[in-house]
TrEMBL record:
This is Cyclic nucleotide-binding domain-containing protein. Residues 10-134 form the Cyclic nucleotide-binding domain. Pfam families: cNMP_binding. InterPro entries: cNMP-bd_dom (IPR000595), cNMP-bd_dom_sf (IPR018490), RmlC-like_jellyroll (IPR014710). It comes from Faecalicoccus pleomorphus.
């Protein structure tokens, strides 16, 4: 991970992430982080020190079960908020967050700005929207669905522009199957 402090770069990243719609307070200092593909943005047992907003790139959030299998919780692209679950209750992270490609984030110190953010209505609304999206995603992963055929047809109808599936790996993750199984369908 490489930290970025250049004000011009941070301004550009802030524009990409639409920060003016996320924070009311202008008294918050950010720094940038550049992660290479395969680097971890967060790992279990590390205390979450920062809120991070993914500006560009793709991340994977997952957990390793006791039997050693990987349980995927979400994939996200910018803008995507990390550290939201640890915002009110400082605690170690429960999940791995890995960069699936080179990823840029804006980071905010939780220790320094937690109280300011607790009083920032715009930020709290943003936080609720992000947590709601994550809960919906997890609920969909956990629900017993119909056959793969029906899941694919539903996905094509409601989530693919013009009913065309582009980017097999991403869609296979959302359908909870391997990309090979999507091709077979």
């Amino acid at each position: 991970m490489k930290r970025i402090y250049d004000k011009d770069i941070l301004f550009d990243w802030g524009q990409k992430a639409d920060l003016q719609s996320v924070f009311s307070s202008t008294a918050i200092d950010f720094f940038g982080c550049l992660y290479e593909k395969g680097e971890f943005l967060s790992q279990p047992c590390e205390e979450a020190e920062y809120l991070q907003i993914v500006v560009s790139g793709t991340i994977s959030i997952y957990h390793i079960r006791e039997d050693g299998t990987r349980y995927s919780l979400a994939q996200g692209q910018g803008p995507f908020l990390l550290g939201d679950m640890e915002f009110y209750q400082p605690s170690p992270s429960l999940f791995f967050v890995e960069a699936l490609m080179d990823t840029m984030t804006l980071a905010i110190s939780l220790k320094k700005y937690r109280e300011i953010l607790k009083n920032d209505t715009r930020f709290l609304n943003y936080l609720v929207r992000n947590l709601s999206r994550k809960l919906i995603s997890i609920a969909c992963l956990e629900s017993d669905n119909v056959s793969l055929k029906h899941r694919i047809l539903n996905h094509l109808k409601y989530h693919c522009e013009n009913g065309i599936l582009i980017g097999m790996e991403k869609h296979a993750f959302l359908l909870r199957c391997s990309s090979r199984r999507c091709y077979v369908f």
